[in-house]
Amino acid sequence: MTDRLDTAAALEHHLTALTGLDPRLAEIAAKAGSFEIRRSPGGFEGLARIVTGQQVSTASADAIWSRFAALPGALDPAGYLALTEEQVRGAGQSGGKYRTLRGIAEAVASGSFDFAPLAELPADEAIASMTRLKGIGPWTAEIYLMFSAAHPDIFPAGDVALQRAVQWAFGLDGKPEVKDLIGMAQRWSPHRSTAALLLWRYYRAVRNKEGISV
């Protein structure tokens, strides 16, 4: 494994290594412009924030999170388990999200799941460890690993913006299928998180320049 993607110096290191693996990305980086790492809290709090944001608008997610985070103990597994379903759902969380967060809190409290080693595991193992938690799918695991665990080798191939960025960057006729994009991204390992950050930045740059609404 390479160093965690948690500092500006680490990002520079990974980007240099990445463009060495695939020189085409140097041109993409020039068009994309500079970008930074967006770090989020780790552990139960970080994963709870991602779960809260699933399938709702950013504004709704922010409002729900503000109410949820204000509940006593909500950001700690043991504290969460002391809350009632009525309290959690009263803050705006759905029944499904209440149960997902309870399952995560129970797994942490029992010792059957540990956030600490995730960043040191190979990508596939880290994702598999997280998706064994009920209610946690690959995308949620990948976003947590990238932004909360600073894992250096994650590529969320199911992300539509990444698919579109790869289409534009490499002149494809359409968005690549998830399985095809996973195969393409293998070339960028063990720096796939930096590749994802670069391509997201490229997507925003091209969309804004061309006035594209997708």
Instruction: Let me know the CATH homologous superfamily of the largest domain.
Output: Hypothetical protein, domain 2
Report the helical percentage: 55-70%
Summarize model confidence as the mean pLDDT: 94
- Give the tally of β-strands: 0
Shape: elongated
Report how far apart the termini are: 35 Å
- Cα-based radius of gyration, to the nearest Å: 18 Å
At CATH level 2, the architecture of the largest domain is: Orthogonal Bundle
H/E order of the elements? HHHHHHHHHHHH
What would CATH call the class of the largest domain?
Mainly Alpha
How much of the sequence is in beta strands? under 5%
Count, helices: 12
Helix/strand/pairing category: mainly alpha
CATH third-level topology of the largest domain: Endonuclease III, domain 1
What about the largest sheet? none
Number of domains: 2
Low-confidence segments: none
Descriptive terms for the model:
Endonuclease Iii, domain 2; 60% helix; single chain; mainly alpha; Endonuclease III, domain 1; 214 residues
